[in-house]
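>> received
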Amino acid sequence: EFLYDIVSNRHNGLDVDKIDYFARDERRAMRSAGEIESRMVKDGIVAWGECPRPEKCFRCHSANPGKHLMLCYPEKMISEASKFFDKRFELHKKIYQHKTSIGVSILVCDILATADPYFKIPTFVEESDESFSAAAILKDDNVPRNVPISRAMLHKGSFLRLRDDVISQIMYTTCPELKEARRLCWRYQSRDIYKCPVRRNLDLWEGDSVKHLVDKEIACLKDEEIKEELLKLNGKHKGE
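>> returned
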C-alpha cells in the first residue's frame, strides 16, 4: 500500500514525483540550479504511522481508519520539509499560477475541445503486435477503428498514438470542420495567448459563492469593449 506513495504521496505530498519536476521546472523556467533534495529520498522509511488524512486514504476507507504502513521521515527532516513546501509555493506563484501559464493552458484546452468531435485517432498500430493490430481490431466489433481525443486513453493503440505533437497534427489538417481548431493552433504557435483583463480575489470564507462574486460588468462586456477599457487604463486613448 505504501508503494504508490513513493510516486504520489496522498498523506503529506512529499514524493519523488514532486521532487523531480520541481527541480526540472526550477532549472528550465527560473535558470537556477534546481538541485534535487537527496536527503528527502535517502532518509525516507516505511513505518507504521497515524494516517493524517483518512478521508482521502483508500486504506482507511477499506478498513478501520488508524495506523497503517506509509512513508515516514525522521524529525530532523522538518527543516527540509518546510523548504520543500516553500519551494512549492514559490513555483506555483511564479510559474504554475502565472497568468501566462494559465492563458496557455486554457488555449490548449480550447484547441483539444474544439478538435475533439472531428479529429480521430486510429485504435491500431503496426502489425508487429497482434494484440491490437489492425487485423485484431477489425475482428472485434466492440472496438471502433477510430476514436476522438477524449476517448483515446480507453484503447491501447490510440493511446500510443496520442503524443505531445497532437497540436501540430491538428494544425496541418485540411478538413473544414477543424478550421476553428487550426485557427487556435496558429494562435498558439504565434504566441497570441489569452490575456488576463482583470484579477479579483474571491473571499469565500465569508460564505459567499463564486457566482455572486463574479464581476458582472466585466462578464457582460464584449471583446472590443474590454480592449477599449484596457487602452484607457494604459493612457493610450488621449481623448479619442
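>> Confidence is low (pLDDT under 50) at residues 129-139, 208-214, 234-240.
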